[in-house]
Amino acid sequence: MKNITKEVEEYIKKVNKIYKAPKCKRLSSYNIYCKEMRKGKEGSLGEIMKQLGEEWRGMDEEGKKKWDEIAAEENKKINEKWGAGPKEDELVVELAELIKKTINNWKKEVKKREKDEDEDEDEDEDEDK
């Protein structure tokens, strides 16, 4: 890992930070509804969630609107804390550019080493004569 450039290390840290962010970043109104409504209910989680799903499907748009607003507020807080995060396409492009730059640096280093070795061989041949 000695050959990894500083840019590669910074990119790896950036990607790790992104992927260590909460996996379920955005909450739907249904998620928040279930989280709030299952408190204090008795029964298995499966039974409770089945009941909540039925209640949600039977709810009118006006009832869901309240939960939509709460979800919007929660997601705003999440965005403020973690940021919207880059799109995967942006990360791929950045990685491709970084790889290209790193390969070019390695090629330059190899050429420099070969040149130095050729000079050392020439010096050795001159000493032998």
Radius of gyration, in Å, reads: 29 Å
Given helix and strand content, the structural type is mainly alpha
- Tally of helical segments: 5
Task: Give me the count of strands.
Answer: 0
| Helix coverage percent | over 70%
The count of domains is 2
Report the sheet with the most strands, covering strand number, pairing sense and barrel closure.
Answer: none
Strand content: under 5%
From the spread of the alpha carbons, the general shape counts as rod-shaped
- Kindly report the average pLDDT value: 79
Q: Would you kindly provide a written description of the structure presented here, covering whatever features stand out?
A:
This protein has 129 residues and is mainly alpha-helical. It has 2 domains: 1-21 and 86-129; 22-84, High mobility group box domain (DNA Binding (I), subunit A), CATH 1.10.30. It has 5 helices and no strands. The longest helix has 41 residues, at 88-128. The mean pLDDT is 79.
